[in-house]
Design goal:
Blueprint lengths: L5 H5 L7 H15 L8 H17 L2 H10 L19 H7 L2 H4 L10 E7 L1 H6 L1 E12 L15 E2 L8 E6 L2 E6 L8 E2 L12 E12 L8 E4 L14 E7 L5 E4 L2 E9 H6 L1 E7 L2 E7 L8 E4 L15 E8 L6 H12 L7 H12 L3
Parallel strand pairs: 1-9, 11-15
Antiparallel strand pairs: 2-7, 3-6, 4-5, 8-9, 10-11, 12-13, 14-15
Helix pairs in contact: 2-3
Length: 362
C-alpha cells in the first residue's frame, strides 16, 4: 500500500515550523501509543506511521529531500516507523513530553536561524562557508550566576530553590516555571554589571557550514547543537536558510537547467552545430534543419546533481529563432526571390492556419 503524505499523517501544512511539528507529534503519539491501546493493531500501525513522519520532517536534510522528491527522495535509507516503537509509555513522556510536565532533565535550548545567500554555481557544485552570528553564552564576569562578583544569589523563597512550581491535575503532577525567580531557583539582589543579572551575554560565534551540491532556494540546513542553551540545557540547533542568486544565463527547474538560445533563421532552416555554455564549460549542440522557434533540445546529464546524490538533471535548450532587424538591399532581393520560389509545405504551420482561416468563411 502506498505511503501517505507525511504532512497529512501529522495533520500539518507544508509550511509548518519545528514547534508546530513537535506539538502535532506529541498529540498524536500520546493518542495512539501501544501502551495506551493494548491489542489495538490499528493504533500500533498509526503510531509507527506518526513516528516515521516525525523522524523525517524534524530533520532538515531529510525534510528537504522529501519536499523535493517525495518518498523516493529518502532512498529507503532506514526511515522506518519502527524506530522508537519499543519505547515504553513512560519513555515517551520523559523524552517527548517532559518539557510540558516538567520531568525532562535534558531539555533542549533555543533554535536559531541564519539567512544565507549563495551564488548559483555554489548551489550547483556545493561549497563550504564560514558564517558568523551572535548567540547567548555564559557571562564570563559572573561565571553565569548573574550576580555581582563577590555577591551570592539568594535561594528563592517561592519555589524553595527548585525553580519549579508543582501542582496536581487529575493523575498528572504538572510543573511550571517559578514566576519569582524565572526558573533559576535563586534571586539576585546585586546584579552583574556585564549581563545585568541575566548570567548570559551575546557573543559572536563562527561555524563552518557545508553546502551540499544541488541545494536550492528556500531549503535549509540543520546544524545540531549550534543553537543556544538555557540553564544547563542541551544546546538547540542552528537552521541555515538558503537563498540562491539568479544566474545571468541559466534558469533552474529542479535538477534541470534551462537555457534560452537565440539563433539565426538560416541556422534554424539549414541546421547547424552551435557552441553553448554549460556549468562544466563550453559544449556543442546540434540544431536540426527546420527547427522552429520555441523547440526544446536536450543535453543529458548537463544539469544539476540531485540533492540526494543519485543522478544529474539535463540541460534543456530552448531555441529562439531571431528575425534579422537590418538587411542589405542584396539580402532583401534574395529573400524576395526565395519567397517567389516557395512551394506549399514549406511553412506547415502557416498553411494550417490559412486553411482554418478560410474555413471560417465558407
Amino acid at each position: 500500500m502506498a505511503k501517505r503524505d507525511y504532512y497529512e499523517v501529522l495533520m500539518v501544512t507544508r509550511e509548518a515550523g519545528d514547534e508546530e511539528l513537535k506539538k502535532a507529534y506529541r498529540r498524536l503519539a500520546i493518542q495512539c501509543h501501544p501502551d495506551r491501546n493494548p491489542g489495538n493493531a490499528e493504533a500500533e500501525a498509526q503510531f509507527k506511521e506518526v513516528n516515521e513522519a516525525y523522524q523525517v520532517l524534524s530533520d532538515a536534510k531529510k525534510r528537504a529531500a522529501y519536499d523535493q522528491f517525495g518518498h523516493a527522495g529518502l532512498g529507503g535509507a532506514g526511515f522506518g516507523g519502527d524506530a522508537g516503537f519499543n519505547s515504553s509509555f513512560s519513555d515517551i513522556f520523559d523524552n517527548i513530553f517532559g518539557d510540558i510536565f516538567g520531568q525532562s532533565q535534558n531539555a533542549w535550548g533555543v533554535d536559531l536561524r541564519y539567512n544565507m545567500e549563495i551564488e548559483f554555481e555554489e548551489a550547483v557544485h556545493g561549497t563550504e562557508k564560514t558564517i558568523t552570528f551572535e548567540k547567548e553564552a555564559s557571562c564570563e564576569k559572573c561565571q553565569g550566576s548573574g550576580a555581582k562578583p563577590g555577591s551570592t544569589p539568594k535561594k528563592c523563597k517561592t519555589c524553595k530553590g527548585s525553580g519549579q512550581m508543582h501542582f496536581n491535575q487529575g493523575f498528572f503532577t504538572l510543573s511550571r516555571t517559578c514566576s519569582t525567580c524565572a526558573g533559576r531557583g535563586a534571586v539576585i539582589e546585586q546584579a552583574c554589571s556585564e549581563c545585568v543579572g541575566r548570567g548570559r551575554v551575546k557573543k559572536p560565534t563562527s561555524v563552518q557550514v557545508k553546502i551540499p551540491a544541488g541545494i536550492d532556494s528556500d531549503q535549509r540546513l540543520r546544524l545540531r547543537g549550534e543553537g543556544e542553551s538555557q540553564q544547563g540545557s542541551r544546546p538547540g540547533d542552528l537552521y541555515v536558510h538558503v537563498r540562491v542568486k539568479e544566474h545571468a544565463l541559466f534558469q533552474r527547474e529542479g535538477e534541470h537547467l534551462l537555457l534560452d538560445l537565440p539563433i539565426s533563421f538560416v541556422h534554424a532552416a539549414l541546421g547547424a552545430k552551435i557552441e553553448i555554455p554549460s556549468l562544466e564549460g563550453p559544449a556543442q549542440i546540434a540544431v536540426p534543419a527546420g527547427t522552429q522557434s520555441g523547440e526544446l533540445l536536450r543535453l543529458r546529464g548537463k544539469g544539476i546533481r540531485r540533492l540526494n546524490g543519485h543522478g544529474t538533471g539535463d540541460l534543456v535548450v530552448r531555441v529562439l529563432v531571431e528575425t534579422p532587424s537590418k538587411l542589405s538591399q542584396k539580402q532583401k532581393d534574395l529573400l524576395r526571390q526565395f519567397s517567389e520560389e516557395e512551394s506549399r509545405g514549406t511553412h506547415p504551420a502557416v498553411d494550417s492556419f490559412l486553411e482554418k482561416f478560410r474555413g471560417l468563411f465558407k
